[in-house]
């Protein structure tokens, strides 16, 4: 049986196939087809089948990571979307949290609402905070609203009423009416998409869902069709923002849950690779051309957050807590008016790209600095596919050097250093904000530029270990082979945690449990190992911030809080508060804000292949060059070919390891060893 | 002595800013008050051993540099300072922030027995006693009515939190449990700052960190200097009025002199201090001036002592921008907003391409309070308004401007917690001043009382003096408070500064925030934009016709 993972990025579509019988991997890379991502996907499947000399019928699993939803929002080319909302509250999206986008830049603009104000239609209705009907729906008013929506000819409609997380009846009724009247239009209601409280965030999530819905739906049907045409007998599954696989049907209903599809695959893969190498507390470090994604993985599980924003618009569905910073290989360096060197967030991207890549770029980038310092091969990269223009890199960096009043080498070193500090800031942020000390974590570096900078970032943060997986450039595609089928279901409770009165809590738990069970029944392959786990989001009454407390498994299995269970999670909440913030109010009232269950069905995870052993690095040595690490100047440094490295080999720094998809820099105060799976485990000496 | 690599120094400087940001993350996560947690009405800072502000993570410009006076007060005081000590104060006349609800906390940081700096924060507490719930009524006539005045006292030592100040403060607040939680959150924050500052020193050594500090300060000074070189030399004047309280309206006047790389501001001509709490103590005046200069000259200037020391500010003694204690100060933000307006207005003559028309420039701070199920409740809210039209585009609708940027409380959160119902929360058509570039719109928020009764207090401005337009742009609309709009007993409250307005079950209090000024002649606005505004209900048909000369046939 063949398992295939396909990750579509902005530039390349990566395909990884695993032959379950032999344990062999096949990797294929082809240019992405931006107009219709599914074209390259299908082509990639065919190519990898040829490479493996396999029949399409042998494919038993196909995992996919997509950027369609993300790009739709970033490029503002989603559906014409209408909003039907509670009367009196038509500007919830316009007003948002009423904050301006930048404290000091008076030219900065708010992200415009995805629904033009003229397409916002209010209907008479109102629920109380307890979910009681204060104002019933009016038959004529609904009909009028449906007419107004029809006249505007939108492709999608979001239905968002106040307090619908508590009582979704009104939303459902209006959504049903719209679906019946406008069968071609994509309709979703906020209580379906994200039944959680705080109206702006819920409305925003629902509107984003509607905005990307029609496009994702069209994409998914094309994808399914093209995959069928290859002869592959299984339907693809798509990885969602929280790092779980979903069916095409789930994606069609909740496209907003795929906003982080691609990046989450990288985190899942990094966790898998590192886990097999014996590490479970990680910070993933995925550095590409324009930005770097970092995510904290604790005890093998990536942190999940519901506070994400996409293009300044909140999205309240659970997603991996990936933090992005505008620092990548293409980040541009400049000197500000006070004489300080700045790197990013503006980027030369892949077009025109760094000056060194000869595609017309003239501004100094992080990549140019790496070329000048000998960290990147000064003649070619990508295994020779791309020639490096050393002189152009020099000219670009000189412009910054002049502004600094320093020489070229100081400027190049400075660019690398400032970029590392920016990325270190992101690493600190994901750990400190989670209440963790990053020094106890392993930095897992991937993406085209991650391994180039990881050791310096680790230094900056005080981390002592860096792991570079065997194929850092195609890790996301590997992630698609090892991702469990999984999704989250959350619903607001907003009740005081009272041991004597768990009825309302049990009602919500039961409802969420039924959703999770129903989902598993339709999504999990027969015989799969399934599990429902969960947590309660809790806070002190009137404290406006929640902590997640794991629910005892027996409570979930019974879908009911037994005697003592509420007191148990309240005690756990106090403990967690004390651990997180240093204090707890054990006599204060505690409120349960939300229950969130995770439904998962495990997929078979391949054992990654071991590589040959051998302690000699000699045969992998392909050259030497002078590399600039710090102020003491360039030093003679051995350069190794990654494919020639054997398990057990130790590479004392300084050393450079080159491979097709990346270059790893091992600084003089670090030592790398190759583990049995071919990972580079780099120990960084701390100052 | 080894020579210091400038990049290393820059990197350490950046890490000090990161420390301040981490202190802020800890404070927000651990705090109780909605003000701090949801609205981020708090800021954190690191000072060097001489009390110079090195790095600040400010969420509100009103806090910029406003902790500086605290260190001076501490040094000048007779208090003994030992490693492990933590101090607090909220006294606006002696280094404790800009009004009583803001409690400032500072921990001197020691390494190997030597003072290496200070870790500090400031946070807006939801109630600090005084005559009205929320401690924020605009019509108190002395600082003593505004709440508990906490002198600079020791809050904690090496042995833990001192119980006396905690008990005092708790007993004087309507919400003692919250005070305790918030102050412990502030403590956790200064302790993180202490730990990280020590770590930076341990890794890099005192000398290098000293150089990094000097670098940071000098960098800000240089950026300001570079920005000032682009401004033509000269003296630029502007004035505006506050809404009148009892007597005549108070003028806010400024003369800004730019001379090469130097800038000075003189507030001569500004009216006398007010009998009500709209007076601005020195730290608040400074923060506002720093804000306005940064926004116009170079939004990227890092806020630290290097920038602050380069700005000279003179304000007449006894004026509304330099009051004599115990003049009340709690509603200072409205005056600060007007100060920002006049600084911007003056600079509009110097760098016309950079300065927008006047924004709503008030804070419209409203408080509903009462009893619910035996518990006392206080619901504070701030209502945003229009952002001034820019020189090249429309103003922003419904945003906080200038010295604050606090968020609203979600309706679903407030209806969970308080016996109130929000009937309306919408933009007000036509509230943005007409112009080639239209002013941003104000907001209407109708709050209905569900309990037996409730009390309404507020401070707001621009209910009598309109936000000005620029270059032929029209003024924006005024704000107002209306009880029971559309009913027989409808009436408008006398002004923006009110307290103790009694409301009964079923009453509705309508808050309308001001719009903002427009920029440029409305006749030059493209018909396309007018049509779009009309379609989206941002302007009415009448306005389109009367102000823009738009005919529906266009």
From TrEMBL, chain A:
<feature type="domain" description="Acetophenone carboxylase-like C-terminal">
    <location>
        <begin position="504"/>
        <end position="677"/>
    </location>
</feature>
<keyword id="KW-0378">Hydrolase</keyword>
<dbReference type="GO" id="GO:0005829">
    <property type="term" value="C:cytosol"/>
</dbReference>
<dbReference type="InterPro" id="IPR045079">
    <property type="entry name" value="Oxoprolinase-like"/>
</dbReference>
<dbReference type="Pfam" id="PF01968">
    <property type="entry name" value="Hydantoinase_A"/>
</dbReference>
<dbReference type="InterPro" id="IPR002821">
    <property type="entry name" value="Hydantoinase_A"/>
</dbReference>
<dbReference type="InterPro" id="IPR049517">
    <property type="entry name" value="ACX-like_C"/>
</dbReference>
<dbReference type="Pfam" id="PF05378">
    <property type="entry name" value="Hydant_A_N"/>
</dbReference>
<dbReference type="InterPro" id="IPR008040">
    <property type="entry name" value="Hydant_A_N"/>
</dbReference>
<protein>
    <submittedName>
        <fullName>Hydantoinase B/oxoprolinase</fullName>
        <ecNumber>3.5.2.14</ecNumber>
    </submittedName>
</protein>
<dbReference type="GO" id="GO:0006749">
    <property type="term" value="P:glutathione metabolic process"/>
</dbReference>
<dbReference type="GO" id="GO:0047423">
    <property type="term" value="F:N-methylhydantoinase (ATP-hydrolyzing) activity"/>
</dbReference>
<dbReference type="InterPro" id="IPR043129">
    <property type="entry name" value="ATPase_NBD"/>
</dbReference>
<feature type="domain" description="Hydantoinase/oxoprolinase N-terminal">
    <location>
        <begin position="3"/>
        <end position="180"/>
    </location>
</feature>
<dbReference type="GO" id="GO:0017168">
    <property type="term" value="F:5-oxoprolinase (ATP-hydrolyzing) activity"/>
</dbReference>
<dbReference type="Pfam" id="PF19278">
    <property type="entry name" value="Hydant_A_C"/>
</dbReference>
<feature type="domain" description="Hydantoinase A/oxoprolinase">
    <location>
        <begin position="202"/>
        <end position="488"/>
    </location>
</feature>
UniProtKB/TrEMBL annotation, chain B:
<feature type="domain" description="Hydantoinase B/oxoprolinase">
    <location>
        <begin position="5"/>
        <end position="522"/>
    </location>
</feature>
<dbReference type="GO" id="GO:0017168">
    <property type="term" value="F:5-oxoprolinase (ATP-hydrolyzing) activity"/>
</dbReference>
<protein>
    <submittedName>
        <fullName>Hydantoinase B/oxoprolinase</fullName>
        <ecNumber>3.5.2.14</ecNumber>
    </submittedName>
</protein>
<dbReference type="InterPro" id="IPR045079">
    <property type="entry name" value="Oxoprolinase-like"/>
</dbReference>
<dbReference type="Pfam" id="PF02538">
    <property type="entry name" value="Hydantoinase_B"/>
</dbReference>
<dbReference type="GO" id="GO:0006749">
    <property type="term" value="P:glutathione metabolic process"/>
</dbReference>
<feature type="compositionally biased region" description="Basic and acidic residues">
    <location>
        <begin position="526"/>
        <end position="538"/>
    </location>
</feature>
<dbReference type="InterPro" id="IPR003692">
    <property type="entry name" value="Hydantoinase_B"/>
</dbReference>
<dbReference type="GO" id="GO:0047423">
    <property type="term" value="F:N-methylhydantoinase (ATP-hydrolyzing) activity"/>
</dbReference>
<feature type="region of interest" description="Disordered">
    <location>
        <begin position="510"/>
        <end position="538"/>
    </location>
</feature>
<keyword id="KW-0378">Hydrolase</keyword>
<dbReference type="GO" id="GO:0005829">
    <property type="term" value="C:cytosol"/>
</dbReference>
<feature type="region of interest" description="Disordered">
    <location>
        <begin position="465"/>
        <end position="498"/>
    </location>
</feature>
């Amino acid at each position: 049986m063949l398992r295939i993972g396909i990750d579509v990025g902005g530039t390349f579509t990566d395909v990884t196939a695993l032959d379950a019988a032999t344990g062999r991997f096949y990797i294929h890379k082809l240019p992405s087809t931006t107009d219709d991502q599914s074209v390259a996907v299908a082509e990639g499947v065919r190519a990898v089948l040829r490479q493996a000399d396999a029949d399409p019928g042998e494919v038993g699993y196909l995992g996919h990571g997509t950027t369609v939803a993300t790009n739709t929002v970033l490029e503002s080319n989603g559906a014409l979307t209408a909003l039907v909302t509670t009367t009196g509250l038509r500007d919830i999206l316009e007003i948002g949290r009423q904050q301006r986008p930048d404290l000091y830049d008076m030219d900065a603009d708010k992200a415009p609402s995805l629904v033009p104000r003229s397409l916002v239609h209010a209907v008479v209705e109102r629920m109380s905070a307890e979910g009681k009907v204060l104002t019933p729906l009016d038959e004529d008013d609904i009909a009028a609203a449906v007419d107004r929506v029809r006249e505007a000819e939108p492709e999608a409609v979001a239905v968002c009423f106040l307090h619908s997380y508590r009582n979704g009846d009104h939303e459902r009724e209006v959504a049903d009416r719209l679906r019946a009247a406008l069968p071609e239009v994509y309709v979703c209601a906020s209580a379906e998409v994200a039944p959680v409280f705080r109206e702006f965030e819920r409305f925003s999530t629902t509107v984003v869902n509607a905005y990307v819905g029609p496009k994702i739906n069209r994409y998914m049907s094309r994808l399914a069709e093209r995959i069928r045409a290859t002869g592959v007998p299984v339907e693809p599954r798509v990885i969602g923002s929280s790092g779980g696989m979903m069916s095409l049907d789930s994606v069609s209903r909740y496209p907003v849950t795929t906003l982080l599809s691609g990046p989450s695959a990288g985190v899942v893969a990094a966790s898998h690779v590192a886990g097999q190498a014996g590490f479970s507390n990680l910070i993933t470090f995925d550095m590409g051309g324009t930005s770097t994604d970092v995510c904290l993985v604790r005890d093998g599980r990536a942190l999940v957050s519901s506070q994400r924003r996409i293009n300044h618009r909140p999205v309240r569905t659970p997603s991996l807590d990936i933090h992005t910073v505008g620092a990548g290989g293409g980040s541009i360096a400049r000197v500000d008016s006070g004489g300080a060197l700045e790197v990013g967030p503006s980027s030369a991207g892949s077009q025109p790209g760094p000056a060194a890549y000869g595609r017309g770029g003239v501004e100094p980038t992080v990549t140019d600095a790496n070329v000048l310092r000998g960290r990147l091969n000064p003649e070619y990269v990508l295994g020779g596919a791309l020639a490096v223009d050393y002189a152009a890199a020099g000219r670009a960096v000189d412009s910054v050097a002049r502004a600094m009043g320093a020489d070229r080498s100081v400027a190049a070193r400075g660019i690398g250093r400032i970029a590392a500090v920016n990325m270190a800031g992101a690493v600190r942020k994901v750990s400190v904000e989670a209440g963790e000390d990053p020094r106890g974590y392993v930095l897992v570096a991937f993406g085209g530029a991650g391994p180039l900078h990881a050791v310096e970032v680790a230094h900056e943060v005080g981390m002592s270990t860096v792991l570079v997986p065997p194929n850092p450039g195609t890790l996301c595609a590997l992630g698609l082979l090892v991702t469990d089928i999984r999704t989250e279901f959350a619903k607001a409770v907003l009740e005081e945690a009272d041991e004597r009165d768990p009825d309302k809590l049990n009602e919500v738990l039961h409802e969420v449990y039924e959703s999770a069970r129903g989902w598993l029944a339709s999504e999990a392959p027969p015989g799969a190992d399934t599990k429902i786990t969960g947590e309660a989001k809790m806070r002190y009454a009137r404290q406006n911030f929640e902590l997640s407390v794991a629910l005892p498994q027996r409570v979930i299995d019974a879908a009911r809080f037994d005697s003592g269970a509420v007191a148990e999670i309240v005690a756990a909440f106090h403990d967690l508060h004390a651990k997180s913030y240093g204090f707890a109010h054990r006599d204060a009232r505690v409120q349960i804000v939300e229950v969130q269950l995770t439904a998962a069905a495990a997929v078979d995870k391949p054992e990654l292949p071991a590589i040959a052993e051998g302690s000699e690095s000699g045969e992998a040595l392909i050259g030497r060059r002078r590399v600039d690490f710090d102020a003491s100047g360039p030093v003679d440094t051995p350069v190794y070919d990654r494919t020639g490295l054997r398990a057990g080999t130790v590479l004392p720094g300084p050393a450079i390891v080159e491979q097709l998809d990346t270059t790893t820099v091992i600084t003089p105060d670090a030592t790398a060893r190759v583990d049995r799976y071919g990972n580079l485990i780099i120990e960084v000496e701390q100052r | 002595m080894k020579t210091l690599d400038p990049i290393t120094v820059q990197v350490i400087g950046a890490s000090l800013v990161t420390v301040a940001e981490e202190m802020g993350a800890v404070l927000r996560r651990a705090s109780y008050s909605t003000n701090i947690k949801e609205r981020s009405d708090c800021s954190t800072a690191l000072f060097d051993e001489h009390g110079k502000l090195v790095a600040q993570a400010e969420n509100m410009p009103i806090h910029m540099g406003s902790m500086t006076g605290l260190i001076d007060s501490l040094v000048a005081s007779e208090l003994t300072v030992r490693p492990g000590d933590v101090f607090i104060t909220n006294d606006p006349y002696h280094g404790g922030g800009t009004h009583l609800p803001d409690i400032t906390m500072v921990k001197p940081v020691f390494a190997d027995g030597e003072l290496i700096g200070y870790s500090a924060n400031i946070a807006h507490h939801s109630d600090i006693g005084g005559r009205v719930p929320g401690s924020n009524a605009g019509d108190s006539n002395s600082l003593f009515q505004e709440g508990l005045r906490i002198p600079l006292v020791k809050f904690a030592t090496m042995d833990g939190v001192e119980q006396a100040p905690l008990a005092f403060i708790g007993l004087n607040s309507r919400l003692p449990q919250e005070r305790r939680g918030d102050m412990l959150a502030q403590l956790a924050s200064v302790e993180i700052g202490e730990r990280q500052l020590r770590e930076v020193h341990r890794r890099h050594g005192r000398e290098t960190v000293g150089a990094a500090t000097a670098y940071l300060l000098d960098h800000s000074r240089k950026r300001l200097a570079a920005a000032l070189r682009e401004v033509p030399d000269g003296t630029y004047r502007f004035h505006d009025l506050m809404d009148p309280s009892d007597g005549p309206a108070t003028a806010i006047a400024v003369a800004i002199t730019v001379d090469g790389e130097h800038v000075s501001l003189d507030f001569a001509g500004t009216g006398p201090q007010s009998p009500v709490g709209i007076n601005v103590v020195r730290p608040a005046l400074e923060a506002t001036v720093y804000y306005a200069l940064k926004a116009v000259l170079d939004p990227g200037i890092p806020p630290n002592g290097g920038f602050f020391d380069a700005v000279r500010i003179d304000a007449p003694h006894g004026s509304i921008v330099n009051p004599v204690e115990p003049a009340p100060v709690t509603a200072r933000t409205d005056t600060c907003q007007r100060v920002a307006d006049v600084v911007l207005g003056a600079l509009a003559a110097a760098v016309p391409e950079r300065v927008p028309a006047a924004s709503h420039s008030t804070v419209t701070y409203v408080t509903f309070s009462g009893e619910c199920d035996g518990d006392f409740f206080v619901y504070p809210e701030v209502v945003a308004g229009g952002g001034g039209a820019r020189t090249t585009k429309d103003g922003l609708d419904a945003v906080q401007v200038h010295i604050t940027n606090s968020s609203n409380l979600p309706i679903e959160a407030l209806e969970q917690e308080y016996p109130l119902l929000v009937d309306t929360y919408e933009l007000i058509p036509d509230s943005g001043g007409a112009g080639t570039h239209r002013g941003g719109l104000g907001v209407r928020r109708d709050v209905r009382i569900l309990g037996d009764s409730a009390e309404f207090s507020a401070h707001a401005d621009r209910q009598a003096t309109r936000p000005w337009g620029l270059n032929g742009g029209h003024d924006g609309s005024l704000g107002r408070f209306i009880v029971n709009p559309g009913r027989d007993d409808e009436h408008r409250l006398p002004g923006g500064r009110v307290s103790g307005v009694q409301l009964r079950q079923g009453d509705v209090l309508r808050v309308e925030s001001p719009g903002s000024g427009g920029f440029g002649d409305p006749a030059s606005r493209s018909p396309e934009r007018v049509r779009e505004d009309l379609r989206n209900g941002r302007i009415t048909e009448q306005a389109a016709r009367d102000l823009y000369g738009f005919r529906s046939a266009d």
